[in-house]
Amino acid sequence: MRFILLNQYYVPDLAPTGQLLHDLARMLASRGHHVDVVCSRNSYQGDQRHRSIERIGGVAVHCVASVGSGRGGAFGRLISYASFCLLAAVRLMTLTPRPDVILSLTTPPYLGLLGRWAAFFRGAIHAHWVMDVYPDVMAAARMADGHGILMRLLRAVGRYQFRGAGLVLAPGSLVAQRVRDYYTAPHTPVASVPLWGPDFEPTDPASVAEIRDERQWGRDLILLYSGNMGRGHCFEEILEAARRLGPRGPVWAFVGDGARAAEIRAFARAHPDARIQLLPYVAPEKVKASLASADVHLVSLSPRWQGLILPSKLQAAFSVGRPVIFVGAAESEIGQWIAASGGGWLIREGDVDSILKAVEQASDPAERARRAHAGLAFARAHFDRERNCQRIAELLEGAAVRQEGHRGLKPAPAVVLRSSAWQPASGILKQLDGLREVVKPTSSRSTL
391 and 369: one domain? Predict the structure, then answer.
């Protein structure tokens, strides 16, 4: 089969979605498929430009020009998104051979529209991998009235992009349920497959020690927040805990960037005794060692954003054998993973005292090791990169086989690795079992 994967970012870029897409692209290529990726030449951070065409791990990568990185102001992002989509459309229409499946991610927003139109004109199936539920995230970020005319219009556009989709993928069952309830038709296949972290091979101790030395951490207890500091995350409780503990507390390290990074920098300047440290993104080859250099990871998700995004920070921490302090709702997917695994501490939004108690417990190396072991075991069972990538590949192949006009296609032969993808204890979704099973969405649709 021939696949085109569409996203604004791809390796060697630092963007997490690009890294995840690369893992899937390599899996598809290893199963004998022809894989093209269409992405932007501009980097996630806006400080680099990638080569226009290159081959990475058996995948043909086509980088189109665009204006800006999409990480500036609203007008700059709009120009960047529009220019990328325009030039990506040209590339999608001219790539040969004709694709069988076009898979779109959600960077930039509504990229699925381009994927759907290109699939229509090229006679292909369009599929979607939903990392952010638009436009709902705009309402969660208070950028738009969730009940206003604009949101109703944008939701209609969202439903249009999924119309006729051969498959819609979600990183968790709550995101999948949100998509079903508001955006897809009852017959549209919607599947939930968890994201993953690094491989489970032990991290080189010398690399970990080198990073700790570079950051001058010594023997301090290190609490690490790694990745995007976006609007959907809780920071107030974490920062207040750092302020209360002051110089006698651990190091609170924030590695990455994002919309709320400026707030954290301002807080650190206003409270120099809080031991808050902000560091830039690290190169892809150093990410695993950076993750392993911390003693405990910090993960958060605002309840308003539940079911709209599902970052892979917990998967990354568990995969390198580190426990997690999670600030968010117990009902969220991350909250359920924490409870089921025993790999960390669950803190309700606004509960600073519980963070302080968790930090006190995390100061005990034996307690850290116990929870780290539990988290790693859970990651091996549910966040295995190869197994979950193969599950997605099977679903995409199955979508191509099912669609009218593609019945002659057959999936590439491969050893089937059964996914033990976690489903919440609340039973919101049934466990996906077998390539042809489709979890039927609810027939009701809200009119939020």
Answer: no
> In angstroms, rounded to a whole number, what is the distance separating the alpha carbons of residues 424 and 76?
39
- The tally of domains found in the chain comes to 2
- The better pLDDT of the pair 78, 360 is held by 360
Q: Which residues contact 55 (CB under 8 A, 6 or more apart)?
A: 61
Predicted local confidence at residue 76, as pLDDT: 72
Tokens of 115: 């994927």
Q: Are 43 and 149 contained in the same domain?
A: yes
Domain membership of residue 8 (yes or no) is yes
Residues 78 and 88 in one domain: yes
Question: Which burial class, exposed, middle or buried, applies to 213 when counting CB atoms under 10 A from its CB (0-12, 13-18, 19+)?
Answer: exposed
Structure-block tokens of residue 427? 């039973």
pLDDT at 114 over 90: yes
Q: Which amino acid is at 98?
A: R
Residue the block writes with tokens 């030039």: 87
Residue 217, domain CATH = 3.40.50.2000
Half-sphere CA count of 145, side-chain side, radius 13 A: 6
The predicted-structure confidence for 222-234, as pLDDT tens digits, reads as follows: 999 999 999 999 9
**Which pLDDT value is given to residue 415?**
39
Nearest to 361 by CA among 378, 339, 346: 346
User: pLDDT at position 123, please?
Assistant: 94
pLDDT exceeds cutoff 90 at 180 = yes
- Do 230 and 178 belong together in one domain? no
Residues 85 and 234 reside in one and the same domain: no
For residue 56, give its domain range: 2-196+384-402
The verdict on 142 and 56 lying in the same domain is: yes
Query: How many whole angstroms from its chain centre is CA 336?
Result: 17
Containing H/E element for 187? none
Tell me how far the alpha carbon of residue 84 is from its chain's centroid.
Answer: 21
Report the phi/psi class of residue 170: left, alpha or beta, with left for phi > 0 and alpha for psi in -120 to 50. Answer: beta
| One domain, residues 238 and 127 | no
**Per-residue pLDDT for 428 more than 70?**
no
- Tally of CB atoms within 10 A around 434: 10
**Strand ranges in 309-409 using DSSP code E only, listed in sequence order:** 324-327, 344-347
HSE of 131 in the Cβ direction (CA atoms, 13 Å)? 21
- Judge whether 157 lies within some domain: yes
Bridge-based pairing of strands 101-104 and 59-64 is unpaired
Same domain, yes or no: 148 and 215: no
How does DSSP classify residue 123?
T
Degrees to nearest 5, angle at CA 242 with 230 and 318? 60
339 vs 73, 313, 346, CA distance in Å? 39, 16, 7
Please indicate, yes or no, if residue 242 is contained in any of the structural domains: yes
The crossing angle, in degrees rounded to 10, of helices 149-162 and 173-182 is 100
